[in-house]
Amino acid sequence: MSATLLALVHTAGRLFDAQIAQSAADASALACASSEQNEIESREHAAEMARRNGGELQRSEVKTDRCEVVVVVRKVARGSVAMSMGRDVVPTLQR
To answer: What does the alpha-carbon distance between residue 17 and residue 83 come to, in Å, rounded to a whole number?
Structure first.
């Protein structure tokens, strides 16, 4: 019984980490895409947003109108992509 309980607690912890990682990845991608700075500053914004949301930016790819990130929370990695269509348009997440 205790092994089953331990496995259940471990699985619940991983699911919780996955939720945090996905939220941090989404916020990070949106911050990156909404940044009107150069590529380096866009990555810095993405990394800062990942940290503020409990994750660590593992990878980011910044293109003209697109930002793709991977954020890790306790060995659980999740990715997100955001696009921006211009200065006065709110960036959107792509699934």
So the answer is: 25
Given CATH 3.30.1300, say whether it is the number of domain 2-94.
yes
User: DSSP 3-state helix, strand, coil percentages of the chain (rounded to 5)?
Assistant: 50, 25, 25
pTM of the predicted model as reported, rounded to 2 decimal places: 0.85
Instruction: Put the strands of the sheet holding 56-62 in their side by side order.
Output: 56-62, 66-73, 76-83, 92-94
Sign, Cα dihedral of 37, 48, 86, 79: positive
- Chain segment 21-67, per-residue pLDDT in tens: 999 999 999 999 887 778 888 899 999 999 999 999 999 998 878 89
